[in-house]
Amino acid sequence: MRLQLRDGGVADTVIDDAVLILSELLSNACKHGRPLGDALAGDGDVRAAWQVGPCGRLVVEVTDGGGPTRPAPATPSVTAHGGRGLNIITALADDWGVRDEVPGEVTVWVVVHDDVYDPDAGHRRDDFAARVTAPSVSELSGLEFADAFDRLD
Predict the structure, then answer these.
(1) Which residues of 50-75 are buried (b: 16+ CB within 10 A; e: fewer)?
(2) For the CA atoms of the chain, what is the radius of gyration?
(3) Is 62 within 8 Å of 1 (Cβ atoms)?
(4) Distance between CA atoms of residues 82 and 118, nearest Å
(5) Cut 0.70: pTM above it
């Protein structure tokens, strides 16, 4: 994927974002989705695909057998070991969604960038940390930490 996109003139920042997004989608499919096909027969799997459209729109998608819930961004605690994947995707991508047109298949698609040939492609990376970082304690009002510690005595 990386070499084909690079050879096609796609900016390295867009390729890096696409690889991270694909990794998150595959992780989510393996953790939350059922395999496609008959897993008991040994042919259960997930399907990954990507394409650059004629207008330079890069789309990455992963298809699995669906899970107990629809994919949706979570609000994990600061100490949680997971739950940030779709938030990362939302922060990096131009758009994403879920398609379940074929019975037994759920596809999560992501528009990594609307125009990979744009010289500013990958610009969303510049403020990525600000878009996915939890607010600092000083920005959260009403926590009253001092009062909570006073009550411990």
Answers:
(1) bebeeebbbbbbbbbbbeeeebeeee
(2) 19
(3) no
(4) 33
(5) yes
| DSSP SS3 for 107 | strand
Domain residue spans of the chain: 2-150
Strand residues in the chain grouped as ranges (E): 47-52, 58-64, 95-99, 106-113
* Domain 2-150 is found in CATH 3.30.565: yes
By C-alpha distance, which of 81, 80, 84 is closest to 133?
84
List, for residues 60-115, the tens digit of each pLDDT value.
Answer: 999 999 988 888 888 888 887 888 889 889 988 999 999 998 888 999 999 998 88
Tell me the helix, strand and coil percentages in the chain, rounded to 5.
35, 20, 45
Other CB atoms within 10 A of residue 121 CB: 22
